[in-house]
Design a protein that fits this description.
With 305 residues, the protein is an alpha+beta fold. It contains 9 helices and 9 strands. Helix 4 runs antiparallel to helix 5 and helix 6 crosses helix 7.
Length: 305
């Protein structure tokens, strides 16, 4: 994968220094056709869009392939973020999207570089279940979220080759549909909510309310106090075979919140380990971050007339 990424960066650098006329000459006009092609807003449309990417990869037309990969990006991404998110998030979203998009384009490059050579290879697309919306409490309340309606679509992409060795494992990607094409925004979760893989995972604890504050814990997070967070307590916990917390050690945190943090974690369950000989003596020791979120102010009730 790393080798493929290096090759892709070299190809991008090479293409970027060619004169525009040379790129058009090399692609034979394919670039404009690829960028302007519209596809239906459906699984079949996305499959056709990736079908065109595979076709161009087989042509060995590097400039056209670069154009095809770039059409997976949100057009005028910074403007799109500014139109759909709070202004305080826009700069970070732009930076994070650039990195996430590059990783995705590298993955698509790796897939086509390794499997487009097989005649039976094609990418099949099926709708995938969308995750639950972001909660308004706990860790999820800190994440950027669109401030108006954004339709995010999840699809599973897989090889339809008759030989399993002629295709990669399937993967899930999320897209938005703009100007007749699907634009990448992430995996199972959009890139701005990738941390949900941890906060909704088995090493996290559901939020609870303690003394009017929402509290939530998750292993191996590195949050910092700031807007929306009153205090953070770091604990080292040991979990027994049955999933109960057996031992707690305080690593850091405001002493005024340590007691509540320990009580919150003690009441949590993390699920038993499989009853197999290989895990008979296994230990689960995690650094657990417990965050105390700022209580939300209730709107004032108008005085009775």
């Amino acid at each position: 994968m790393k080798r493929a990424q290096r090759i892709w960066r070299i190809l991008l650098a090479f293409a970027s220094i060619l004169p525009i006329s040379a790129l058009h000459a090399q692609s034979g006009g394919t670039q404009a056709t690829t960028a302007d092609q519209a596809y239906p807003d459906s699984a079949q449309g996305l499959q056709a869009q990736f079908g065109e990417i595979v076709r161009i990869a087989r042509s060995n037309d590097q400039a056209a392939f670069r154009t095809a990969l770039n059409t997976l990006a949100i057009p005028n991404a910074e403007q799109w973020f500014a139109a759909h998110f709070e202004v305080r998030f826009v700069s970070q979203l732009k930076e994070d999207y650039s990195k996430s998009l590059e990783r995705y384009q590298s993955h698509v490059f790796w897939v086509t570089a390794n499997f487009a050579k097989f005649d039976d290879f094609a990418i099949a697309v099926q709708p995938s279940e969308s995750p639950a919306p972001l909660q308004t409490v706990g860790f999820e309340s800190l994440l950027p979220r669109p401030n108006n309606e954004v339709k995010i679509q999840n699809y599973r992409l897989s090889s339809s080759a008759s030989d399993p060795k002629h295709g990669p494992p399937s993967w899930v990607s999320s897209f938005i549909y703009i100007d007749g094409r699907f634009r990448y925004v992430g995996g199972t979760y959009p890139f701005w909510a990738e941390s949900l893989n941890g906060s909704r995972g088995p090493m996290s604890i559901p939020p609870a309310v303690i003394h009017g504050r929402t509290v939530q814990g998750a292993a191996f997070r590195k949050d910092q106090p700031g807007p929306g967070i009153d205090a953070i307590v770091h604990l080292s916990i040991e979990i027994d075979q049955d999933g109960h917390v057996r031992h707690i050690k305080v690593l850091s945190g405001d002493s005024a919140f340590v007691g509540d943090a320990k009580d919150y974690v003690k009441q949590s369950e993390f699920g038993p380990l499989p009853n197999i000989p290989q895990l008979a003596n296994a230990k689960r020791e995690w650094d657990m971050e417990v965050v105390f979120f700022t209580a939300k102010k209730e709107p004032a009730t108008p005085a009775a007339q």
